[in-house]
UniProtKB/TrEMBL annotation:
Full protein name: Thiosulfate oxidation carrier protein SoxY
Domain of life: Bacteria
Pfam families: SoxY
InterPro entries associated with the record: SoxY, SoxY_sf, Sulphur_oxidation_SoxY, TAT_signal
Annotated Ig-like SoxY domain residues: 51-154
Length: 156
């Protein structure tokens, strides 16, 4: 290989590398800073498959005032033991103010007992968090908590 061909190969490699790095580091303007309540409502509507959302049966426990959104303790579960025909198939948690509103999905089998889950979640800002329980009979039950976050997360 001649020196001119080698230099051209290096130049082409450097130009391509710099261009690829520039594209990779560009901010994504199409990604919104947070989900909108309309988007979350559409997600919940798709989850419910046309069934009306009813308040009750599912309980979402979150602190009303959160100091740090990086680690928020959440407990979601069903308030009472349900008969097998109405057992809980899944619990879903949505956060209206997060960049990605799907926070958590939990699926339960027929031998799960009374569904109850405790975990930690990240919240971007003060917002409403919604829990939806989908039952075997096709019904959907919901609970929501509006909370205040003093130190935001999910924005990195």
């Amino acid at each position: 290989m001649t020196a001119d061909a080698l230099a051209l190969g290096r130049r082409r490699f450097l130009v391509t590398s710099v261009g690829a790095a520039g594209i990779a580091l560009m901010p994504a303007p199409w990604r919104p800073a947070s989900a909108t309540p309309v988007e979350v409502a559409a997600l919940i509507k798709d989850l419910a498959s046309g069934a009306p959302l009813q308040p009750g049966r599912v309980k979402l426990d979150l602190p009303l005032l959160v100091e740090n959104g990086n680690s928020v303790t959440m407990t979601v579960g069903v308030a009472e033991v349900l008969p097998p025909a109405e057992r809980v198939l899944s619990l879903h948690v949505f956060a209206e103010g997060n960049p990605l509103p799907n926070v958590a999905h939990f699926h339960f089998g027929p031998r799960s007992g009374r569904p109850r889950v405790s975990t930690r979640i990240r919240l971007a800002t003060s917002q409403t968090v919604i829990a939806v329980a989908k039952l075997a009979d096709g019904s959907c039950w919901t609970d929501s908590v509006e909370l205040l976050v003093t130190l935001a997360a999910c924005l990195e």
